[in-house]
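Inputs:
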Amino acid sequence: MTKLSADLAAAAGGVALWRQVADAIRLDIVGGKLSPGDRLAGELPLAERFGVNRHTVRRALSVLAEEGVVRAEHGRGTFVSAARRLSYPIGRRTRFSEGLAGQARAIRGQLLSERLERAGAGLARALAVRPGTRLVRIETLSLADGRPLARATGWLEEARFRGFGDAYAETGSVTQALHRFGIDDYSRGSTRISARHADVEESRSLALAPGAVVLVSDAVDIDTAGRPLHAMLTRFPADRLELVV
Amino acid sequence: MTKLSADLAAAAGGVALWRQVADAIRLDIVGGKLSPGDRLAGELPLAERFGVNRHTVRRALSVLAEEGVVRAEHGRGTFVSAARRLSYPIGRRTRFSEGLAGQARAIRGQLLSERLERAGAGLARALAVRPGTRLVRIETLSLADGRPLARATGWLEEARFRGFGDAYAETGSVTQALHRFGIDDYSRGSTRISARHADVEESRSLALAPGAVVLVSDAVDIDTAGRPLHAMLTRFPADRLELVV
DNA sequence: TAAAATTTGTTCGTATGTATA
DNA sequence: GTATACATACGAACAAATTTT
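Outputs:
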């Protein structure tokens, strides 16, 4: 492991050292190098490894402790408490709850808000409608065992899906809400994946560590005839979830 | 757009305000909200929009100017110079250069280093070999029109692919290097996608903006019989590329 | 049981970076 | 450009809990 002090302090101007150290340690944990129950190296060895002061390591560890990723025990050491990332499979038949079944118990989605919107150029192309078409827009949050796993924005044609938000709110699932509108089966059209820093609203709703990274999936679900049903922009916390293609 | 000062300064401790402002503006550009040639809002309106001091906006813009994303013209304003993200298609037939053909002209890969390694538990499982098997490990960098687009680490069984690094160095392409070893066709097995902050080495080799986000693809290529050929861990700059499934 | 070594926790001081007015 | 307030990072010491010798 290279030193951070000389290299990173210069390389990553604008990002505090304690945050970089915290990110590096969290990566070891969610990446599987360290398992729940494992004891981390001592504060001094860690400070040595990253080339920073012990205070800087302590601050990083205290942040990770607040996140619930590690816990410190006076006189004994610091231990890993959280587990590794969940895997969310993406393919032609992509279903959120089914994909995570077996990895988490209680998976449910909640409706944050619903409103009407006119299709702009991009959405019109994605949904194969004329620009200006009335759309239902829903904002949702999905949780697994109480932990936020996805923050999504969805758009559907209002003419066909008036009241979709209510259906989602009651069922907690896109698949079941679509079922209420007579869609028995659907599949995934395209999925575009990118990544960036979480914005303010995402940090809050996903209960994210400050400055965290989100995976962004920009996707369209289509019916069996290939017609677009549902465009969505989903943000996943990158340290809790990975996408499997 | 919400204010950053009150919300983010508290929410994203450890990340300087000028960096958050720079990231937000860069996102508008690579996300397509602003196009090359467009004029950015003035410094004072921007300061107002983000709820920060004008000096803070100036620092953000000067960083973006150093990256080559915008250029400031004395007395006229600040203009967008860089283009939006490239799209890299991922599917059963995934080929790096083919996937980007049409979006960039000169695409080539260069070999950074090659060495021998013994398979650990994870690699052994991915390549379907016994732990301890001798592997060729190659470190590569791919560029499109001179801009670094991917930093990859690849592993292949040494018994079959001795000298793979040389073949890659000469051809600049995995597909062509495999061809030299008698592999006429191959396809993509699994692909796991995650995201995180770039580490020191990645920041350097990909010429990344400090504190940047990388998309990480952990994938295995298989031959027509379904046997694993090539395990790879590829890091893409999230603000230059998106993955399309 | 007792002493020594480890490890986390706390308190000073000082220098530099960040952000505002 | 200057001044001010706060966050960041380092260094040295000491205290308290725990394990090892």
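Remarks. Confidence is low (pLDDT under 50) at residues 1-11 of chain B. Residues 13-14 of chain B lie near DNA strand D (CB under 10 Å from a C1').
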